[in-house]
Amino acid sequence: MSIDERRALKALQDSSALPTDINEDSEDFTFGDVWDGSDALPISHAGGEFGDLARGVLEEVWRLNDRNGARTVRCDNRTRRDRVLWRNDAFNEQVPALSEAYLLWSLEKSQKGFKNFFDRLRSEETDEANDLDGGQWPMMVVDAFFAEKLLLKISSRARTIASAMVRQGVMPCSPISPVVGITLETLEFYRVAHLRSPHLSIQAFVKTMSDLHGVEFHRHLSRQFSIAFDLYHQIRRTVASVLMTSLQRDSPDWRLKHACPACTYLLTDEDQLRFKMLYAMDGNDSLKRVIRRSLNDDDNNNNNNTPGTSSELPTSQLFISNRYLARDFVDQFSQDASRDSGQEKQLNVSQNAPEENSCEGRWKNMDDSKTQKAWGIYDETGIFVAICRHGFCLLITDMVQSGELAKYPLAVVAKLLDAFGDNLGGGYDIGCQFNTTLNNSSIGALARSLHHTCLVGAFHGHAHRRLCQLFSLTTYIKGLGIEDLETCERTFSKSNSLASPLRYTTIFHRKQAIDSYFEHNDDLEVFSNLSNFLYSNYKQALDILTNGNDVLPNAMRDLGVTDVGVFESWLEEEKAYLKGLAREPEEETLQMEYWQRLVANTRKTESTRRHVLEDYERNLKLVQALECKLDINVRWVPDDGEWQRVGRLVANRKYQRALDRLEGLVVARIFELAKMNKAGTGYKLRKHIAKALQTRSAAIRSALNTYNNIASAMFPPRQILKWDEVVEYAFLADFDLLRNARADISQTPWSSPVARSAMDLHFKMCRAQEEISRLNVEVRRLVTYIRDEDIYLQVCEDQLKATSPALAHQVAIHRNIQGRFNSRHLKRLHDISKLPGFSGTVVPGVSARTGPGERADTQEDLDEEEVTEEVTEEASRSLHKVLLITDDLSRLQLIDNVELE
Asked: In whole angstroms, what is the distance from residue 592 CA to residue 626 CA?
C-alpha cells in the first residue's frame, strides 16, 4: 500500500471529516465493514482498486494527486491517546475471528507437519493455495532470523484481513491495513524465553533480531513487536477460556480449588489430616511500578505526600485473571486492620494463644504508621501472594500505594476460607500479630468457626520472642509435620527477576507479566518438582526418626526421664514461666517509679541544690500521689528494706533493657547474613550489607559491654556473655532464658541445654511422624490425579475430534503441558515406595470430587459407561507396567553398580 493509500485509509477512520453527501450505507460498499475488519477490500492481482476508490469517494475531503504531482498534506489532529484507543478497540472487535483463525492454524500445523511459516508458505496443500476466489495482500513478514516482503494470499472465507494473516501464522501489527506482521513462531519463542528468563525484554529481543537480520535497530520496531505480542497474549487467553469451557472447568474458583494435586485432590477413603491445607503468605516489594504523573501534578504536590493524578495513556486493555484478587474486594478489609486497637485483643481465641502479642513492634510490617507510608512515585508497591506448601501459587493481590497493610492478608484468608472451608493453616512472618487482627476483623467469627490457624514460619519464627515461638513456631504445632512455611521466600527469590522489566511498564502489562510468570512457574516448574518434593520430605522425615531413635533414648537416660510425656509438661512449664515475664506487676511498676523519684530528689539534694527549689514542688506532688496509690504511710529511706528491694527491681529492669538491645542487634545480624548469602542479591547490595555488618559488629560489642557491666552489678551477679557466644546465638530462646526476673529457673530441668536439646528432638520426631502421615496421603493423591487427569483429558479429546478438531488439538496440547512429567513422577513415586520405612501405598484411589470437569466417569455425555471402565482399567494397567519397569531398571542399575565395584 502506498503512502497516499494509507493516508486515505486514515481519512476513512476520521468520520467527522467526511462530507455529508457521502452515503456510507450504500449497497455497493460499506466503509464501516472495512474499518472494523469484517470485510476485505476486493483487490485484484494487479491492485490499484483502493486508490481509485479513495479518489472517487473522498474527492471532496482529500485530493489525491498523481505520484509526481503536488500533494496537499492533511494535518492529523488525533493524539497518541486516540490512536492507541482506536487500535485496541479495533483489535478487540476482531478477537473472536482471530482466535478461530489461531485454532485452525495450530491444527493445520500439527496435522501437516509444518516447521515454520515459510515451510507453510511453500506448501501447495493449504486452503489459500486452493482458493481460486481469494485475493492477495502485501506484507513485511518478520521472523526471528530473517524478514521478507511477501504477497500473502487471502482466503475468500477469511472474516477479516487480520484473521487471514493469523490463519497463515502471521500476527499483524495493525488491525485494518497491516503492513508488518510477526510470525507466531517468533512470538511463541519470545514468550517462552521471557518466562524462562524475565530479564529478556522486548527491546533486547528485537535488537537481537535486528543483528541477525543485519539491519539497524529503530524504536518503532520494538513498538510493533509489542503490539503483536499483546495481541498474541490476548488470543491465547481467549483460546484458554474456550478450552476451559469445553472441559467444564470454567466455574469462578475452579483453578483455585484445583491449584495443587497434592493439596486439593481429595480421595474418598484417605486419612483425615489436622490441617486440610497448609499455605504461606507474604508481601514482596520488589515488583513495584512507577506511576507516571505530569509535571504540573508534581509541582502542585510538592507540599504534600500524596501522588498526583496519573498521566498514563488509557489503553482500554483490561486484564482479568482468576489468580488476582480485585482491588475492590481487597479494599473491603481496609477498616478491619484498625479494629484490634479499639476492641479487646482477644475474642473467643484459642486457649493456647498468648494473652498479648509479645512481638508487637519488632517487625516493620506490624507498625501501621510505617506500612501506610510508601514512596509517592509508585502506584503498585509490590504484590502479596499466597503459596501452598508445595509451591503452587494460590492468590495474588497488588499492594497499592502502601506497604504491607493488614487488608491484604485478610482478603487472602477470606478468599481461601470461601474456597476450601475449614482446617486451614496459614504461615505468615507476623502470624502472631495477624492472629489478633484476624480475630477482631469482620471475618473473625468465620475464621474461628472454620478453625483457621495462624502460624509463623520456621525462619522468621526464630526472630520472635520465645513465648510467641511456643504458641506459633512450626516445631511445636501438632499436625504441621516438618513444613517450614517459608515457601514465599523461595518463590520470591525467583520472581524477583521480574522487577526490572516491570518498573516502568503499564498496569495492564505488569499484571499480564506477573500472571503469565506464575502460570508458567506452576505448570512447568512447581509441578515438575512435585514428586521430588514428596520424596525429599519423606526421606528427611525418616532420617529424623532414625537419628532420634538413636539419640533420644540416651539423652532421656542421662536426664533421668522415663516417659516422653515429660517433655510436654516441660513445654507447659516454660509457657507459664514466660507468661509471668510478659508484663511487670502493676504494683512493682509503681514502686519502681516511686523509688526513682526518691532517688532523684536525694541525688539532687546532694549534688545540685540550686535545682531543688525549681523541681521540689513538682516532684513532691508526684511522690505524694504515688504514696497514696501504694498506701505508704512512712516515706522510704535508703536504709529501709523496701528501698533496697525495689532498687534491685529497677536494676533488673535496666538489665532486661540492655539484654533487649543486645538481642535486637544480634537478630539484625542474623538476617543480614542470610540476605548477603541469598541468591539474586546484587553486588551493590552485598557491599552495602557488608558495611552494615561492620557497623553492626561494633554496635554489638558496645551493647555487649553495657550488658556485662550491668549484669556484674546485679545481686546476685547474672551470666556474663562473651563475644564468641553472642555471635553464635541463632535462636532467641537463648536470650529469653536470661530473663529470670522474679523466679529462679536455674534448677528447673527444662532450663539446661541438654534438656532443651532433648525436648526439641522429641518434638521434631513428633513432627516427622506427622509429616509421614501427610505424605502418605499426598503420594496417593498425586498418583490418582495422574491417572484421572490423563483419562479425563483423553476422553474429552476423543469427543471433540468429531465436532471441533481444532479444539480437540488444544486439549491435546493442554494434556501434554503437565503430562510430559508423568513418567518422572511415576518413577519418583516408585522410589518413595522403596524407601525403608515407607508406610503408605502408591495404588490409585477414588477421587472425592464428582462435579463438572472432574473424573471422566461422571460425565453425562459419555456414550457408554463401559468406555470409561475400559479406559480406567487400561490406565491402571499402564501405571502398573510403568512401576514394574521402573523397578526393573533400578535393579539393573544396582546390579551394574555392583559389577563395577
From this structure: 10
Q: Is 181 exposed, middle or buried (0-12, 13-18, 19+ CB in 10 A)?
A: buried
Q: Residue 541 and residue 519: Cα distance in Å, rounded?
A: 30
φ, ψ for residue 453 (rounded to 5)? -120, 125
C-alpha distances out from residue 3 to 67, 179, 262, 659, 806, Å: 10, 11, 60, 79, 39
**C-alpha dihedral over 491, 494, 500, 505, to 10 degrees?**
-50
H/E stretch holding 420: helix 407-420
Dist CA 340 CA 244 (whole Å): 42
Is the pLDDT at 714 greater than 90? The verdict is no
Cα distance between residue 498 and residue 396, in whole Å: 15
Phi, psi of 467 (to 5 degrees): -65, -40
* Predicted pLDDT at 335: 80
pLDDT tens-digit profile of 129-166? 666 677 888 999 999 988 999 888 888 788 888 999 99
**In the chain, % of residues over pLDDT 90:** 34
Angle formed by the axes of helices 753-803 and 822-833, to 10°? 140
Pairing between β-strand 147-154 and β-strand 135-142 as defined by DSSP bridges: antiparallel
Q: Is the pLDDT of residue 370 over 60?
A: no
Beta-bridge partners for 180: 140
> Does residue 134 contact residue 40 with C-beta atoms inside 8 Å?
no
- Pair 840, 263: CB distance under 8 Å: no
- Alpha carbons 883 and 832: distance in angstroms, whole number: 12
How far is 513 from 766, CA to CA, in rounded Å?
42
Does position 680 have pLDDT exceeding 50, yes or no? no
- pTM for this structure? 0.74
- Determine how many CB atoms are found less than 10 A away from the CB of residue 468: 24
Q: Give the whole-angstrom CA distance, residue 330 versus residue 122.
A: 54
Q: What backbone phi and psi angles, to 5 degrees, belong to 60?
A: -75, -20
The residues pairing with 310 across neighbouring beta strands, listed in sequence order, are: 293
Cβ distance 280 to 389 under 8 Å? yes
Please give the full DSSP string across 403-467, using - where no structure is assigned: SS-THHHHHHHHHHHHHH-S-EEEE-TTHHHHHHHHHTSTTHHHHHHTT-EEEB-HHHHTTS-HH
- Which three cell numbers mark 771? 509429616
d(CA 847, CA 786): 11
